[in-house]
Design goal:
Elements (H helix, E strand, L loop, with lengths): L11 E5 L8 H14 L4 E5 L5 H8 L8 E4 L9 H4 L8 E5 L6 H8 L4 E6 L3 H16 L10 E8 L4 H12 L4 E6 L2 H8 L13 H19 L30
Parallel strand pairs: 1-4, 1-5, 2-3, 2-4, 5-6, 6-7
The protein binds adenosine-5'-diphosphate (ADP) and magnesium ion.
Adenosine-5'-diphosphate binds next to helix 1, strand 6 and helix 7.
Amino acid sequence: MMLNVPGHRELRKIVVLNPKGGSGKTTLAINLAGYLASRQRPVALMDCDPQGSSTRWLEKRPSHYPAIHGIVAYTTSMVTTRSWQLRVPHDIRYLVIDTPAAVPAQELVDFTRGAHAILVPVLPSNIDVHAVSRLVAHLLLTAKVSRRMGRLGVIANRVRENTLAYRKLMLFLDCLSIPVVGVLRDSQNYVRSAEEGLSIHEMVPSRVTKDLTRWQPLIGWLEQKLETSLTARDLHHPILQPLPGPVVPFRKARIKP
Ligand SMILES: Nc1ncnc2c1ncn2[C@@H]1O[C@H](COP(=O)(O)OP(=O)(O)O)[C@@H](O)[C@H]1O
Ligand SMILES: [Mg+2]
């Protein structure tokens, strides 16, 4: 699926990626869109996953809440052109992109090019940690998302503190020098708000205080990225390289005498 989003100069793109299903991509995308909408920012939510979860969330959204423009990118229409289907209205300033699991390498480039922020939610489990380390390697090598540019942020999702799984996750991410920009609780508030077509930022604050507190560092990081102008690096057209293998522990090479 080619994703040349017909955007405009002032459009800020936030992409949510993770090769694994169930890591929280849709949850993060809808809460980001809901956050921006609740702050009166003109926002669109692009659903690239054939499962259509964020589109269904938008359909549930009560009409008296700030509008979020929906873009369904996972179907190909017979009656309209692709660029018409993906068009972002001129008054929209923020675009949140919800992606499917297992995005092929070329699409990783398309998705991340020109993004102000690339967010990767990861669950505290061994399988998820390995999937995410492989994704980050792809992003850095194939999509040339430079670590220095700092547009990439990992979100530890569904965290239960004081658990071994959480400590292992943080340790592993730290070893790989992957920036963790947010830690979100395992909380039914995400499930309940999503059922109502809302984000946790739009719930009665007293019911979601702990979760809102957890969003503060993430929001701080995001707002800063949204303010940082894109450079040529962010808009590059990279040459595709062979994909790296999974990240394996370092072993000393044996040198033959
Ligand atoms: N922080 C969280 N706390 C509780 N449930 C969560 C949290 N994040 C995601 N979930 C739930 O986990 C399931 C998978 O999340 P989802 O966002 O759909 O993942 P993905 O889009 O990566 O497949 C959903 O039922 C969602 O409500
Ligand atoms: Mg999803």
